[in-house]
Design goal:
The complex is a heterodimer of chains A (about 375) and B (about 575).
Chain A (H helix, E strand, L loop, with lengths): L1 H12 L7 E10 L2 E11 L4 E5 L6 H9 L6 E6 L2 E5 L4 E2 L7 E4 L11 H11 L4 H14 L15 H13 L5 E5 L7 H18 L2 E6 L2 H7 L2 E6 L2 E6 L1 H6 L4 H6 L4 E7 L8 E6 L6 E6 L8 E6 L4 E4 L9 E13 L4 E7 L2 E7 L10 E7 L4 E4 L4
Parallel strand pairs in A: 3-9, 3-10, 7-8, 8-9, 14-21
Antiparallel strand pairs in A: 1-2, 1-4, 4-5, 5-6, 10-11, 12-13, 12-15, 13-14, 15-21, 16-20, 17-18, 17-20, 18-19
Helix pairs in contact in A: 3-4, 3-5, 4-5
Chain B lengths: L10 H4 L2 H11 L2 H29 L11 H8 L1 H33 L6 H7 L2 H4 L2 H12 L5 H8 L12 H25 L3 H9 L4 H29 L3 H7 L7 H10 L5 H34 L14 H29 L15 H9 L1 H33 L6 H13 L2 H12 L8 H26 L2 H9 L4 H29 L3 H6 L7 H9 L3 H25 L8
Helix pairs in contact in B: 3-15, 3-18, 3-19, 3-20, 4-15, 5-10, 5-12, 5-14, 5-16, 8-10, 8-13, 8-16, 8-26, 10-12, 10-13, 11-12, 12-15, 14-15, 15-20, 16-26, 17-26, 18-19, 18-21, 18-23, 18-25, 19-21, 20-21, 21-23, 22-23, 23-26, 25-26
The chains are: A alpha+beta (about 375), B mainly alpha (about 575).
Chain lengths: ~375, ~575
């Protein structure tokens, strides 16, 4: 049902916007290691989709399969209405016939050409006229903020400038899809933050479907309309940044996206689906907490409770808890002042928890305080899945 | 979690083996497949079949009637051949020891101590590497033959009772070979020194080790794989070396395996199958040693010393630095300056008697060599033709196979790499015997084409290495980016790959040009009247006409060194590894 919508959307958007991409049943083994394990997803036209995961999760292999740089062992890939790869049908379009743009991790700015020759290359190999190319190169370069750089040798650009040139080259031929392979990982932290905004602005302006591979969850959350979290060649979860951060569907996602405190627990009272449930901490049998179940859990079941460091609060005085709040006694183990936050490590019975507090707090090692944790922020997932 | 479009759901069971294979093939460019086949066929004809022929003939009697082990048995039974083996091992061992000592000492003096002059010596020390060793041998006969040698005259003038040096001896052969092999050790070890993180030594010093303790426990052990690798390479090279023992050993009736091989294939009665058996024996020995050498390089050198070049920390050795300077000067004097000086004065003297008389100097010898001596005129023509055509073919082939090995995803590319590396392991003289026997009796035998074939077979791997080093330095994302940007396979090769590896290709061409110009060993096995090269002409001239020979040598050295100058100007220093 979702695909129908995509195709309708595509019909109206063709030309100015990008095409949808659909990937089905992709498999790829390297030696004995499965890089892609029956991977299926689709990418909405005109949107940015991020493939996010640790190194070796298969995200880059998936991207290279879309580009036609890698041949999967099995599966099918469609760009728009064209089947570009289909192992069962014996179809394999070479990369140059797929009408793509790609920004490589190293940028791959050809050092023996000028900036203009680099950017104009996709038009040149498509057989466009020289004067056409020149005009479009100038236009595209000003779009990425490098107007007037056309005649400069490409070998002498800064990292940020190389990035812009790579971007200009990827969009100049108005491809149906742009692929990004960790495009920001070679930049320093400040420049990276700035380029995120620029990338986003530019993508909104040209509106080309984008597939973005990264291992940096902050980057993915900042840029992507939709995130696909991958692990071991499979999809763990997909959704927008907020839902993935707030509602992790698995232990892996909770652990990989941001920092989480994980507590082993046993269900005390069965829950209805996605309701507030009381659990007992495995390491501290006398402590029970109220938390929110993501699935149906029955009494006595082992599970894990995840809570984000920034969802936790400390107070010195015992206050009356709201219905769904947990108030727990903790001891401060260590603090780190980081300017915009204070990171605190506290002991809760036999467990340790990490907190991120606002920087005005003054805490000392050994302080005994009350930890306040809203049941809504504490998410229960089926445990022992390791 | 994910919705899949309905058309894709039926997929997994229906795929057939044929469509899978078809997709594999279309994934490799068809052009790559054709190039692969081309390189394979050329390797087969130029290397594999000639060597296979050697193996076959080595098990046959001279009349080709029966298969027999007689040839191998004779090698051990015949006292003359046994002598040859012992002599070869003696020369190889002696040269390895002396050249490793010279090379390590020179590298240490230049890159690890404060001895002055590194910038000049780093170039001068490498000159012998590029000049033909047989010319060095000829030059040293002018310097150190018993009766007419300039050095012997000098020591007698200084009060010695008689000649001290005799270049026509095993010691003489070892000496000259060492002068020419030491630069290889020097290159290996100095590059190891340069790639060694100085903080490793500094850490030893901070931990309390003294200067020499640091050198013994850190510096040398770290450079040891490089030293051993160079030593093994030299041992193998010398085992198969032919030219220097030919020039210096024959007059002393001192025969090694390669000179016996030459006698066997050029003197009546010709014994090709006996020669083949000796070749096979040498190939096996060389192959085993080189396998060990490769293991050594791969095991340690690359792990501890890859990456960028560091600025080496230099040790202040006080007054020792003048000793270091003197040592290096003596080396350059022996390997470069004295030989060229001897060749120059001899070539300018009307008749060489071992006495320098500047007032009689004349260019008559040059005139004779260039205009009156037919063989040299032919040789120059042939050599230039062979060098240009051979370097071009070798570079094209080397570039193609480097691309296939390091850039394509062709199945079998590792096999191609191994196959093309074979001729690196086989001494030139032996490959030449194989090529000669293979084409014996065909119209090709005795033509320039057979020389061309042998040169291309022998030197293409060097071109491949030179191009590969450029190719490896160029990220594969450059090509991939071009493909995604819409370029075809050929468009990508033409617009992106070739321009980026141009320096490596140019260096490869010049390198091959030099190697072909200075080549003697293979030519001697393959030339016939009319297909002489300059080297062969010099060899033919050598007996009885020292002045004209010297003039021809100078001409050859000038040609080679001017190409070297171009090579150095066009490529980075560390790409010059042969």
């Amino acid at each position: 049902m979702y695909m129908d919508k995509c195709i309708n959307a595509h019909d109206t958007l063709i030309g100015s916007r990008g095409a949808p991409v659909s990937v089905a049943g992709l498999r790829k083994n390297f030696k004995k290691f499965a890089a892609l394990d029956d991977l299926s997803f689709d990418v909405k036209p005109g949107k940015i989709t991020a493939l996010l995961g640790p190194s070796g999760c298969g995200k880059t292999t998936a991207l290279r399969c879309i580009a036609g740089l890698e041949v999967p062992d099995d599966g099918e890939i469609k760009i728009g209405n064209t089947v570009v790869t289909s192992i069962s049908k014996g179809t394999l379009l070479p990369p140059n016939k797929r009408n793509l743009g790609m920004v490589f991790q190293s940028y791959a700015i050809w050092p023996h050409m000028t900036v203009g020759q680099n950017v104009g290359y996709p038009l040149k190999v498509r057989g466009r006229k020289g004067s056409d190319i020149e005009r479009q190169v100038e236009e595209t370069l000003s779009l990425v903020g490098l107007g007037g750089y056309s005649t400069r040798p490409a070998g002498k650009l800064s990292g940020g400038q190389q990035q812009r040139v790579a971007l200009a080259r990827a969009i100049i031929a108005r491809p149906s899809v742009i692929l990004f392979d960790e495009p920001l990982s070679n930049l320093d932290a400040k420049l990276r933050a700035r380029m995120r905004f620029e990338l986003l602005r530019l993508q909104r302006e040209v509106g080309i479907t984008s597939v973005f591979v990264t291992h940096d969850q902050a980057e993915a959350m900042a840029i992507a309309d939709e995130l696909i979290v991958m692990n071991r060649g499979r999809i763990e979860q997909r959704g927008d940044a907020r839902s993935i951060y707030m509602e992790p569907a698995s232990e892996f996602v909770a652990d990989f996206i941001g920092v989480s405190n994980a507590l082993e627990a046993i269900v005390v009272q069965s829950s209805s689906e996605a309701g507030i449930t009381t659990v007992r901490l495995s390491d501290n049998p006398d402590i029970t907490i109220k938390s929110r179940a993501r699935c149906k859990l029955i009494e006595g079941q082992r599970c894990q409770a995840f809570v984000r460091p920034e969802s936790l609060r400390l107070s010195s005085a015992q206050t009356t808890p709201a219905y769904d709040d947990n108030i727990l006694e903790v001891t401060v183990l260590a603090t780190q002042y980081l300017g915009n936050t204070i990171e605190v490590e506290v002991r809760l019975g036999n467990s340790e928890l990490r907190l991120a507090l606002e920087p005005h707090h003054h805490l000392a090692q050994g302080d005994r305080l009350h930890l306040r944790m809203a049941a809504h922020d504490c998410i229960l997932l089926e445990g022992a899945s390791r | 979690m994910t919705t899949v479009s309905a058309t894709n759901l039926q997929m997994p069971e229906e795929r057939s083996l044929i469509s899978r294979l078809a997709i594999r093939f279309s994934a490799q460019s068809r052009v790559e497949g054709l190039l692969f086949a081309l390189v394979l066929v050329i390797l087969l004809i130029s290397v594999v079949l000639p060597l296979g022929m050697l193996a076959l003939r080595s098990f046959q009697s001279e009349e080709l009637t029966a298969f027999t082990l007689a040839n191998y048995i004779e090698i051990v039974d015949n006292p003359r051949l046994l002598h040859g083996i012992v002599n070869s091992l003696l020369i190889a061992a002696g040269t390895t020891i002396l050249s490793v000592f010279l090379g390590v000492a020179l590298a240490w003096v230049n890159y690890r101590t404060n001895t002055p002059g590194t910038s000049i010596f780093s170039s001068l020390n490498l000159i012998p590497f590029f000049t033909p060793s047989f010319i060095g041998a000829i030059a040293w006969t002018l310097l150190a033959s018993q009766n007419q040698g300039l050095l012997n005259k000098a020591v007698i003038a200084l009060g010695a009772s008689g000649p001290i040096f005799n270049i026509y001896s095993p010691t003489g052969i070892i000496w000259v070979l060492s002068l020419f092999e030491a630069p290889l050790v020097y290159l290996f070890v100095s590059s190891a020194f340069r790639r060694m993180d100085p903080s490793l030594e500094e850490a030893a010093r901070i931990s309390g080790a003294g200067l020499f303790q640091t050198a013994a426990t850190v510096t040398l052990p770290m450079a040891l794989p490089s030293i051993l690798a160079a030593a093994l390479l030299i041992f193998v090279t010398v085992l198969g070396s032919f030219e220097v023992p030919l020039v210096l050993g024959i007059p002393a009736r001192f025969n090694v395996l390669t000179t016996e091989l030459y006698a066997m294939t050029s003197e009546y009665p010709v014994r090709y199958n006996m020669a083949a058996a000796m070749c096979v024996m040498l190939i096996v020995a060389a192959g085993l040693l080189l396998l060990i050498q490769r293991k050594l390089i791969l095991s340690r050198d690359f792990i501890t010393m890859t990456g960028k070049a560091y600025k080496p920390s230099r040790v202040d050795i006080g007054r020792g630095k003048y000793l270091g300077l003197a040592f290096n000067l003596v080396f350059v004097l022996s390997a470069v300056i004295l030989p060229i000086f001897a060749l120059l004065v001899t070539s300018l003297s009307p008749i060489w008697t071992g006495v320098i008389r500047p007032q009689t100097f004349t260019l008559a010898n040059y005139l004779y060599v260039l205009t009156d001596f037919d063989v040299m005129r032919r040789g120059l023509k042939n050599t230039i033709l062979l060098a240009i055509v051979g370097a071009t073919l070798g570079t094209i082939l080397g570039t193609i196979s480097a691309y296939l090995v390091f850039r394509s995803k062709m199945p079998g590319r590792v096999f191609l790499d191994v196959l093309s590396g074979i001729s690196l392991a086989v001494p030139g003289a032996i490959l030449a015997v194989g090529v000669a026997i293979f084409w014996l009796g065909t119209p090709v035998y005795g033509t320039l084409f057979i020389l061309l074939l042998a040169f291309v077979a022998r030197f293409t791997p060097y071109a491949q290495r030179s191009v590969a080093s450029s190719l490896i330095a160029v990220s594969g994302e450059f090509d991939e980016c071009s493909r995604v940007a819409g370029a075809t396979w050929w468009g990508t090769v033409y617009n992106i790959v070739l321009p980026l590896i141009k320096p490596g290709v140019v260096a490869a061409w010049l390198l091959l040009f030099i190697m072909i110009v200075r080549e003697l060993g293979m030519s001697l096995f393959l030339y016939k009247t009319g297909t002489e090269t300059t080297s062969v002409a010099i060899y033919l001239l050598m007996i009885g006409r020292p002045s004209a020979t010297a003039a021809a040598c100078i001409i050859q050295v000038v040609i080679v060194l001017s190409i070297v100058m171009i090579l150095r100007a066009t490529s980075r220093k560390d790409e010059l590894m042969l």
